[in-house]
Design brief:
globular; 75% helix; mainly alpha; single chain
Length: 338
C-alpha cells in the first residue's frame, strides 16, 4: 500500500501533488519506527509459536500462527511500498504488480483466519464435548489450506483481469506514478471485481463473527455451560470483532480513496492515505501480538522470555513452561482464551 494514487481527475501543479522533503522525512520516521518495532515483535511471536510443542500441536495456536504470518508479511510489504512511495521510486508495472498481488494475498488472510478462529471458539463453548473431535490438527490444516486457496484464487482473478490491459500500447512499462494497489486498477472490470469481492468478504466475515458472538452469549447464560470459559470466549470474540472490523476496513480503502480523489487535491489524498496506512494497515497487524501475546497465560511467559533476550527471565520461564505445565496446558487448552 502506498500513500499516493493515480487520479486523472486531478489537474494541479507538482508542488501541490507531492509532500515536501521535510514532511516526507517526518512522516517516514513517525510511521517507519513503530512499524519496525512491531515487525520485530511479530517475528518474535512467530518464533515463540514454533518453540514449544504445545503451540505446534494445538489448533488455536496454529491458527494464530497463520494469522500472524499473514499480518507480518503484509506489514513488511506495505512498509516497502510506503518507502518506495516516500522516495518517489517508480518501478515497472510487472514489479509493482508482483508486490501489489503479494500484498493483496496476505491482506485477505487476516479476515478469513479470524473467521475460522471465531468458529473455533464457538465450537469450544457451544459444543465442548465435541470440540476435540471437530477441531483437530487435520481439520485445522484443511481450514488453513482453504483460506490460502481462496485468497490465491482472488489474486489469480485479478492477474487475469490485468492481462486484459493493452500494455503493448504503452510507450514504456515504467510507471509514471508510485506503486500502489489503486495504480493497478488498469481497467474498469478490475475496479468492479474488487468492489464485489470486498463486499462479499466484508458481509460474510461480519455475519460469521456476529453469529459466533451471539451464540456464545446465549451459551453463557445456560446453566450447563462453564461460565468462566464462556465469559473468556465472549471477550475474545469481541476483540476478534473489533480487529476484524479494522482489518476489513483495509479492504475498503481503495474505494474510499478513489471516491475522495474526485473532489480533493492530491496532496490531501497523500495525507489521508498516510492516515489510512497507520490506522487501517499497521494498527490491526499489531493488535494480534498485543492481544494474544499479553492475554494468553501460556504464550506470555515464553514471549517475554524471547523478547527480553533470555535475560533475567530464564528461571521464571522454565518454571512456568515446564514439561508438566505444558502437559496440563494441553489438557485444558480449549478453556483458555487468546
Amino acid at each position: 500500500m502506498s500513500y499516493v494514487n493515480q487520479s486523472p481527475t486531478l489537474n494541479i501543479t507538482s508542488e501541490q501533488k507531492y509532500q515536501g522533503l521535510l514532511e516526507r522525512v517526518l512522516f517516514s520516521t513517525l510511521i517507519g519506527m513503530p512499524c519496525c518495532v512491531f515487525l520485530f515483535i511479530n517475528g518474535t511471536m512467530l518464533f515463540t509459536l514454533r518453540s514449544k510443542s504445545v503451540f505446534r500441536e494445538t489448533s488455536r495456536y496454529i491458527l494464530l500462527y497463520n494469522l500472524l504470518y499473514g499480518d507480518t508479511v503484509l506489514l513488511a510489504l506495505s512498509q516497502l511500498l510506503y518507502i518506495l512511495a516516500a522516495c518517489r521510486i517508480m518501478p515497472t508495472y510487472p514489479e509493482c504488480g508482483v508486490l501489489v498481488m503479494l500484498s493483496s494475498l496476505t491482506n485477505q488472510i487476516s479476515p478469513l483466519t479470524l473467521v475460522v478462529m471465531c468458529l473455533e471458539r464457538y465450537v469450544a463453548v457451544c459444543y465442548p464435548l465435541r470440540h476435540g473431535s471437530i477441531v483437530t490438527i487435520r481439520n485445522t490444516a484443511v481450514a488453513i489450506i482453504v483460506v490460502w486457496t481462496f485468497s490465491s484464487l482472488n489474486v489469480l482473478i485479478r492477474v487475469v483481469l490485468l492481462l486484459d490491459f493493452p500494455f503493448s500500447d504503452l510507450e514504456s512499462l515504467q510507471m509514471t506514478d508510485v506503486c500502489s494497489d489503486i495504480a493497478m486498477f488498469l481497467s474498469p472490470m478490475s475496479d468492479i471485481y474488487d468492489k464485489a469481492y470486498t463486499g462479499f468478504v466484508f458481509t460474510s466475515a461480519g455475519v460469521a463473527v456476529i453469529f459466533s458472538y451471539i451464540s456464545v452469549m446465549i451459551a453463557a447464560r445456560s446453566a450447563s455451560t462453564d461460565k468462566a470459559s464462556a465469559l473468556k470466549a465472549r471477550n475474545t470474540l469481541l476483540l476478534h470483532l473489533v480487529q476484524l472490523g479494522l482489518t476489513l476496513l483495509s479492504t475498503l480503502h481503495a474505494s474510499i480513496v478513489v471516491s475522495l480523489s474526485k473532489t480533493l487535491q492530491r496532496l490531501i489524498i497523500v495525507r489521508i492515505k498516510s492516515f489510512f496506512y497507520v490506522f487501517i494497515y499497521i494498527l490491526p497487524r499489531c493488535l494480534s501480538s498485543l492481544i494474544y501475546g499479553l492475554r494468553d497465560q501460556t504464550i506470555r511467559p515464553v514471549l517475554m522470555y524471547h523478547l527480553c533476550c533470555r535475560l533475567k527471565l530464564s528461571r521464571a520461564v522454565k518454571a512456568e513452561v515446564s514439561p508438566q505445565n505444558t502437559l496440563n496446558d494441553s489438557k485444558i487448552i480449549f478453556k483458555d482464551t487468546y
